[in-house]
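call fold(seq) -> tokens
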Amino acid sequence: MSPFRAQHAQDILDAVASRNLTHVSVGCLDWDGRLRAKHYSVAALAAALAHGLAMTTTIFAQDIGDTPILFGPFEDAEGGYPDGRLQLDARSARNAPFDAGGAGLLILGQFQPPYGGYCPRALLRAEIERHAELGFTVRGGFELEFRLLHESPRTLAAKSSAELSFAPAFERMYGLVDQAASAPFLHAFEQWAQRMDVPLAAVHHEFKGLIEASLASVDGLAIADNAVLARSLAAILAHREQRLACFMARVAPELQSAGAHLNISLWRDAGRDNACFDAAGVSAMSRAFIAGLQRYVPELFVLCAPTINSYKRFAPDSIAPPRNAWGVNNKTVAYRAVLDDAVHARIEIRVPGADVHPHLVLAAMLAAGRRGVEQGLTPTTACDGDAAVPASPAAAEFPTDLAVATHAWRTSSLAVEVFGAAFVDAYARSREWQLHRYASAVTDWELQHYARSV
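ret:
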């Protein structure tokens, strides 16, 4: 089946009729980057496309483990857990190869007021529109790293990180033999992605058991939509094989951490002129954008590292960027200017981990860079060598843990400007709830060190 993309609601209704579908999947995103969806009757689909449909706001009341966030504004029994109105985006419609014998459809949407200010897709749309007002089309794609575990949710619950079983044939980086051995999973992933119109530039094995899926460059909302859909496809395929596609930032101390590098370019003249390209070197726009990243990413860092585990990715033995530095074709830095040519010149943001919310982190990085362009900021001297060396040029340090990052987010004027005060507070509460839950947990490390010794 060829990829499906709609321009108008009628395109979706025609596809539903030609495929004899009884239901389609309609969904939106929670605050941890997961798709929350309904299987929706096609009998009501025309009305839903025209006027929206009811979607529970309690998707914002659950943490990443689906435990109610007691500190949050949506855990609201007295308020009756109200529904919001989800406006479907016809242009988001894709094939759903995992549904209806391969003929299914998935349509994404965003909440309308009064809940639009809490909706990640709506927040990203607003930031993309700010760039459009400056004359820029946003183009880019994520590079997603993950691991395939030989575990089910049941077996995972009974194991520590040291006992995890990893899928075989994923040990060697770029190993042709290894990749051939894992071909059934990789080929199924590639085929599903193609049918869902999630273009993959490359899929290969990375360091120490990682799989990397590099998503092709696209425009606007599709940058983040494609990342969420690719992660979902990997998870569904693995689940059907009684395995887990794991996007944790760090699974075990001896294993390499997993990132979600973000490639961005800004285009002028209706997408014909790449503002990141300058035949003489790093363009003036790129320098200002990078300066904005250096200045403001520390305030927005919680969206690059949204979990307690995220900060283990930045250990000294990791290839994650340790400092707020930039350079040209330097993979030790946080922001890598890729010069190449007028088509491929871009800024690679290497800070986000595999566990990020694609829509929220893209909105944050665009906002930080935009502010740099608007203010005409100047970056530090480019780093030519190892950015981890203390003497290397860098801007303000990154937060070192979730508590510090959450405080920086709470006190950021840019966060309030871009995301709104209500969302800044609600998202901070969701991170504080995570910290509260973790503080009350008893870990394997504590049992091993204290149970027989105190």
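The CA atoms of residues 13 and 46 lie 7 Å apart.
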